[in-house]
């Protein structure tokens, strides 16, 4: 017996990001998004710090490191330049942020 499965339903943005991750976009690709990320952060409602693991609204960011490719955000909680914006191809979930932390801060 075949299990009913609706392939016609489009994936939402969140599911697409998970899929990109599982398809093997490397963590270094995600790490690159923690730099020169001002434009990405201005376009989204959410971001996560891969150092202190907090998820928050980008308007909380007040300090930026100047970069000719675009300013880099500093985390308002821990002060590190380790903020991953939502909407750039990676899930802002506790699981993914923990994985990034293990890769870059342990
Ligand atoms: Zn932080």
Could you describe the 3D structure shown?
With 106 residues, the protein is α+β, with helices and mostly antiparallel strands. The chain has one domain. Helix content is 31%, strand content 11%. The strands form 2 sheets. A 3-stranded antiparallel sheet has the order 2-1-5, with no helix packed on it. The chain is globular. The mean pLDDT is 87. The structure holds zinc ion. Zinc ion binds next to loops.
What attributes does this structure have?
106 residues, two-stranded antiparallel sheet, three-stranded antiparallel beta sheet, 5 strands, alpha+beta, globular, binds zinc ion
Oligomer: single chain
Q: What topology, given as strand order, has the largest sheet? A: 2-1-5
Shape: globular
Largest sheet: 3 strands, antiparallel
How many alpha or pi helices? Answer: 4
**Average pLDDT over all residues:** 87
Number of domains: 1
Percent of residues in helices comes to 25-40%
